[in-house]
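Ticket #4471: structure output looks truncated?

Reporter: J.K.
Steps to reproduce: submitted the chain below (421 residues) through the standard prediction queue, then opened the result file.
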Amino acid sequence: MFTYKAIIYTLCIFLILYLPRVFCWFASLKAQKKLINTKKNKFAICIPARNEGDAVLPLLNSLQNQTYDKSLFDVYIVVKDPNDIVIEYGHKYGAEVFVDETQTCKGNCLDYTFKQLIEKYPEKYAGVIIVDADCVLKDNFLEEMNNAMASGAEVINAKKVVGNYFLNNGKDSNLITASNGLIWTLMDDMGNRWKSDHGFTTMTISTGIFISYRIIKEIGGWKYNQTLTEDMEFQRDCCVNQWKTFYYSYAQFYMQEAPSLEETNKRRNRWMNGLIHSDFIYAKRMLANKSLHCRIDNYFIFSLWIVYFFVAIELGLGIINIAVFAFNKIFRGIWSWKLLGIAFSAIGIVYSAYLVMTLVALFIARNDTKLTYRDFLKVLFYHPIFYLGYTKIVFKSIFSKKKLEWDSIKRVDSAFEERAK
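Returned output as attached by the reporter:
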């Protein structure tokens, strides 16, 4: 049996260790400084589009609507099937299409594309911007990405906005899309913003991201294919190599969230599995640099492990007390209500911690969501439960050796319909 003291001690230790990360949550309350770049750089837009079909059309339309000079960017689409309808779409929009029939993950796809680019056009571009096929760019996206290059960074993350709220009159938004969509606020405005402002490695999600041609040529393509989350491998390598990363909140694009918990969990399983195994792969190299800056950088990258241990201990205490309560009732006929109270207190503390995080996230994202007062309350109280769903996913990712497949995630077919017209 464990007492209330064990629960409180665990919470206090967690708060002390995690406090620097909490401090980052509020960096975006102050508007980010706008940058102006007098130099107009040329970009290669890379669109991985395996089996995407009509989903790529809104993205191609949004590229045609860019305020940035059309002569300063070229579009490259990469597919797997030589008979993919996306090839026809790409040619119609003036894109060059690569067919890589051997790709088994997005990392393979990017490696093939980048090698083609640096072989055919070794000096043509300042860098590559990767955009997933189901995204839609705001009209000034490329203009703002070019402005962001005035920061001197070689890796630039754009702001991710949940498109389900804003496209198709918001008809494709529900409790699941709203809950999972908060991850981008937690990642960008509550994480990347502070790290970017202070010169630490941002979380480099591989859509809506600029990578300098110098880095791509140095790598010789894209070597990050040991997991299904090549972007988490890349982030850790940015830390190892001290490549300067930057998050620019004025470069924005719409992402689409899966409409059901089942499909969302496919993405969450894949992402967490890759994130955790990227930690295993790169930890030794990351920890080898003992400078203060690198130690702080490593803290932010590995800070999720503080959460993993906190949740595991608190939920473990809860489960053990529930088990002892059940044992006493079944075999000894004793109602040990204190045990049950301790158990629910441990579980409640985890829920409450997530509830506070959710409340802050909803406030930070207030201009990026379209929630009625009733929907706001639904998300506020459901999101902590949704987040508790990561517990099983993290456990499986740490201990399971089963290799995940690069399967497709179902979307709401109409999500970006109005931008495709």
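Triage note (M.O.): checked the attachment and the full token line is present. The first helix runs from residue 4 to 24.
Status: closed, working as intended.
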